[in-house]
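pasting input
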Amino acid sequence: MAMRELVTGGAACAVPGSSSSSSNPLGALANAIIGSSSKTQGSEFLSGFRSANQNGFADAWDEIQHQNQIPPHFDQFHGPRPAALPQPTLDGPPQRVLSSFLHSFVGSSHGSIPFRPTSLPLLGLSDGDKQCIRDRSSIMARHFFADKSEDFINAQVNALLSSLEIDSDARVKGPMPGRFPELEDYWNESQGMVRPGAPAVDGWITEYSQHRAAHGDPDAWAHSFEQQHGANGWASEFEKEQSQLTSIDQMRGVNIPNFEAMEQTRMLAHTLAQNNDPKFQNSKFLQFVSKMSRGELIIDDNQVKPVASGDWAAEYQQQYTGGPSWADEFAHNQAINPKWDFNDLLKLSHGPEQWVNEFSTEREQHGSADDQWVNEFSKLHVDDWAEEFGQQIGENSADNWANAYDEFMNEQVAAKQRSDASRGVYVFSDMNPYVGHPNPLKEGQELFRKGLLSEAVLALEAEVLKNPENAEGWRLLGIAHAENDDDQQLTCNKERISMQAIAAMMRAQEADPANLEVLLSLGVSHTNELEQAAALKYLYGWLHNHPKYGTLATPELSESLYYADVSRLFIEASQMFPEDADVHIVLGVLYNLSREYDKAIESFQTALKLRPHDYSLWNKLGATQANSVQSADAILAYQQALDLKPNYVRAWANMGISYANQGMYEESIRYYVRALAMNPKADNAWQYLRISLSSASRNDMLEACDSRNLDVLQKEFPL
Amino acid sequence: MPVFKTPFNGYSVKFSPFYESRLAVATAQNFGILGNGRIHVLDLSPTAPTLSQLVSFDTADGVYDLSWSESHDSLLVAAIADGSVKIYDTALPPTANPIRSLHEHTREVHSTDYNPTRRDSFLTASWDDTIKLWTVDRPTSVRTFKEHAYCVYNAAWNPRHSDVFCSASGDCTLRIWDVREAGSTMIIPAHEFEILACDWNKYDDCVIASASVDKSIKLWDVRNYRVPIAVLNGHGYAVRRVKFSPHRRNVLASCSYDMTACLWDFMVEDALVARYDHHTEFAVGVDMSVLVDGLLASTGWDELVYVWQQGMDPRAV
C-alpha cells in the first residue's frame, strides 16, 4: 500500500481514490507490478454483493483477467493485424435539404413548438435511411421534448416522418414504458414492498431476492403490461395515435381552413412571449419559427404551390445566412434575390393594400422597437413581414398577436378564393440587353442551340415580354432555365427544374393549353416537386390532347385523377404504340412518382433505344438511377448526356452529385467546378461544391469557393 | 480558451487518461439521425490556446460515444450508431483503422466505458436494451446483460470494484450489476422519466448519480436507495450526461438539452457551482480531466468542442 502510494502519489495526488483509477502510465505500471489492491480497500458493502460463486461467471471473468494479467504489449496486441478491415463506405443521402430539415425538427424542441410537415423535394432516401430516421427520431424526440405529452411527441415525430414520406411504423420503439400508469403502479407496488423503516445495510440482498421471487423474474412488469394490453399493446397504441395523426395530415392536404395553423401559431406566440432567454432567440430555433410562420400562410394551398415551395427554399437559404454552421454552405446569395418574396405573392394575389396597411398602422402606433428581442428577430429577415410580426410580438401580448394573425389568415383564405391565379410568378431579370431586339425569339433559339443558356434566358425573356402569348417562347424559356440549373429550388439528386422553369412553363401552357411538349414538361417538373396531383393532371392532359391517345383519356376521369388510373392509361398507350418514346418517358416519370425506380429505369432505357440521342432522356435515366442508389450507373448515363450535349450544365452538376454520393469527393469537385464554369449562377452547385470540399478535407479551397473564385478552382481542379 | 470546430454535430468528448493535452471527440452528421460519423483526436497546444487535430477517423454512421483505453495510450473504443463497436489505434493512420470492428448489438450503441481498474475490458450500452462486456483481444463479447426493458443509454464501471457497474435506461431504472452474477444485483427506480446517464462517485464507491429526461440529477447511495441523497434541479431540459470529478469528492459536471453545462456540489444546499452556456445548441458531451484538476471539455450539436479551466469562461479568448 505504501509502495503503491509512493508510485501513484496516493490519495493526495490527482488520481482519484487511493488506487482506484490508475489512469496514468505510472499508475498503470504500479498496478501491473504490484497488482490491484482494490478489493481489500473498497467498502465492504459492494464487495458483499457476491453471495457465492454458483454460476461460473466469476470463473470466466477471472480467467479473462488471468490471461491478461499483464496488459499485452502494444505491438503484440495487434500482432498479425486482421486483414485490413474494410473501410466504411461514406455514402450519405443527399445532405443539404435533409440536414436543414432535421435541424428544424431538432430546433422545434427548443421552445416545444409544434413541428409542421413541409413539402420536401425528393431526397432519395433508402429504406435503411428511412428506418434510421424513423427509429432514431422517435427515441430522441422523447429526450428533446422532455415533459411534453406523448401525443405531442408523436405529433412532432409524425410531422417529420410524413414530410420525409416515411411510413410511420409500429415497430418503432414506442414510448418508454414508464409513462404507462400500469407500470407506475408496479413501481409503487415494488416500492411499497420494501419494509418501512431503514433496512439494515446488509438486509437488502435478502429483500431483493424475496422481491425477485415474488415476481418471478425482472421482466415481470413487462409481462404484466402485456397481460393487460396483449403482446402488441404498445405498438397498437402507438399505431392508433399515428393513424389519427395521419388523418389530420390528410385533412390538411385537402385544404381544410387554416384552423390548425392558427392554433399552432398561437402556441408559438405564447412560447415566444414566455421565453426571454436571448440565447434561445439567437438560436436557429427562432429562424425556424420564422420559416414556419411564413410557410403557414401559403404552403397548404395547392393553388400557390410553386410559390409555396419556392418560398420554402428561399426560406431555408435565408435562415442560414450568417449562421456559422455548415448550413451556411448554401446561404450567401439569397439575400440578393429573394425572388419568391411573400410580398410579391400578395401583391399579385390580392393587392398589397389591406394587410400591409393594417400592420404598418399598428406598427406606427406601437412606436419604436428598441426591445432587444425585436431587434434579434428583425435581424433575421430584414424586409420580411416577419419583421412586422416580430414587432407585434415585442410590443403586444401573445394573444394580441395571435388575434391579428387570425384576422390576417382569414383574409388570406378569402384572398386565395378570390384569386384563382394558380400559376407561379415568373420573375424577369432587371437588366436585359435583349429588350428592344428585333427578333429575340430567333436570337434565343440560336443561343439555346449553342448552349449559351444564360444568354438564351435573357433573349427569351425579352421575347415573352414582347409577346406574352407566345407559348413557344415561354416553353423554351422554361427549358433553358431547367437545363441551366440555375434554380432556387432545393432539390437533390434529381432532375431539377427551377421554379422559374415551372413558372415559364405554366405561362406557356396558358398561352397554348394543348401543347404536348409543354404538358409533358410540366408533368415532369411537378414530379420533381413531389406534387403528384399536379403531375398527374398534366400527364393526363398530355394524353388527352395527344392525337393518338386522346381516345384513351375519357373526360370523366379528369375529374378525379388517381395514380393507378393514369399509369394504367399510359401502359395501355405503350401497348398501342410501343414505338412511341414519349409514352415510355411518361411511364418512367410515373414510376418515379411511385418510387418504382427499377421500372422507371426500364422505361427510360426502352425510350432511349428509340431515341438514343436525347440528352435530357439520358439525364432522366441518370437521375432515376441516382435516386435508386445506383450512383455508379448514373454516372454512365450522365456521361452519355454530356457526350451528346457538352454544355448541359445540369448533367455536369448531377455527375458531381453522383460522385459525391459515392464518397468520391475529389471527383465530384471537378464536376461541380465544370458546371459552375459554365453557369456561375448555379447556386446549388456552389453549395454542393462547398460540401464536397469540406468532405474531401480541402478546407484550403473553401475561401475560393466562398468568394466564387472560379479561376483558382479551375486551376486546382481541372477536369 | 481553446475551441475546435467539427464538421458534424458533437456527441461526446473524452480526455485521454495518459496525456493531459489530448482528447477525443465523437461526432455524427445530422444530429446522429442519419449520415456519417467522425472521430477527432485533438491536442491542446502547450503554448497557444488552440486545439489541433492529430488524426480523424470516418465512420459510415454516427459516433455516439467513445472511451479511451486505460491500458494503451493510443487505443480508443467507439460506440457507433449502426450497432457496431470499433476499436481505433490513434497512432496508426486512418487507412489502418479501425483495428477491430465488433458487430453484436442489433441497434444503436449509445455509450461505452473502459474498465479503469482491471483495464482489460470495456462495456457498451445499446438501444437494443442490452449491455455487453468486451475485452480488446476477443472477437466476441464476453457477456451480454439483458434485463432492461428499453434502450440502455449508459453503463459505467465502479471506480473501485472492477466487477461492478451501473446502467441507466429508458425503462426508468438504474441497475447495478456484478459481472460475476447472473442477473442485476439491484434495481433502482430512480426517475419517473427516462434515465440518460449515470456515473459513480470516484471517492465514495457507493454513490451514483443519475441524469434524466425529467431535467433532474439524483444522487443515490446504493446502501439505501429508496430516497436519493440529493436531487439537483436547475437544468431546463433533459440532462444528457453526468460525470463525477476525479479530483473533488462532491463535485460533478453535467450537460443538457438546455444547451448548458453545469458544475454541481451535491453536498451543499446551493448545489449549482457554475453554469456554462457557451453552446448554442444542445450540449451533449462533457468530461473532466483526470490529469489536470479543474480542466473541463464539452461538445454539442453546435459542432464545437470547448476546453476550459473551471472558473474561466469557455468562450474567453
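fyi The radius of gyration of chain A is 32 Å.
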